[in-house]
Structures are given as C-alpha cells and as structure tokens.
Amino acid sequence: MAASKLPDFGGKLVLFYTANAPRGIQDGVLMEFVNFADFNGKLFLTGRIPSVDEAGTDWVSNLQAGISWEDVTHYLVFDSREDYLARMGVAKPPLLRRLFG
C-alpha cells in the first residue's frame, strides 16, 4: 500500500484487532505514538503500549510494540487518552465497583 494511502495515527490512541489473535491480545492491542515501519519488506505498526490502568499494574505498560499491518482486521481511533478512558468507563467505574471496590 502506498504511504500516501496509509492512515495517520499521529497524536491518537489506537486499538488494533488482528486476525487469529493469540491469547492475551484477542481483546485488541492499544498503542500510542503509532507509526508505520518497514521490516524486511513487511509493513508493521510500531508504537508504545500506554499506561491506562489507574493502579499502574498493567505489566506491558510503556513497552514498545509492533503489529503486522497485514494482520490488522479492525481498528478504533481515540482522540486522546481522556477520550479512551471515558469511553472505556475507567474514568468513572460502575456504581457497584465504586461502592464495593
């Protein structure tokens, strides 16, 4: 695919879903600072896994990551971290979770 036809993910958080996703990423891979990179003729999306867990316990937070563009079947683009958190309900946990922790 020509570089001019590739999406621009600059400044966004992007949730990628891949075909035949292995266990652990079947719910998608969230990345920020996403760029396209060519590795031996194969196009990859590279970026960083953001820390969006309030407790900061996500073991892959702030690690560099890469996904084959060819394997991406669907993606969601969030305007910002705040947009992602608001939409995922992390910014305001459900009532029962707030009451009972």
Class by SSE composition: mainly beta
| N- and C-termini, Cα separation | 48 Å
| Total E-strand runs | 5
Main β-sheet, in a few words? 5 strands, antiparallel
Order of helices and strands: EEEEEHH
- Which ranges are low-confidence, i.e. pLDDT below 50, for 5 or more consecutive residues? none
Give Rg in angstroms: 15 Å
Roughly what fraction of the amino acids lie in strands? 35-45%
Enumerate the strands of the largest sheet in spatial order, edge to edge or round the barrel.
4-3-2-1-5
- The proportion of residues forming helix, as a percent range, comes to 10-25%
How confident overall, as mean pLDDT? 84
Count of alpha/pi helices: 2
How does this structure look, described?
It is a single chain. With 101 residues, the protein is mainly beta. It has one domain (9-100). Helix content is 14%, strand content 36%. The protein has a five-stranded antiparallel sheet. Strand 2 (29-39) and strand 3 form a beta hairpin. The longest helix has 8 residues, at 81-88. It is globular, with a radius of gyration of 15 Å. The model has no long low-confidence stretch (mean pLDDT 84).
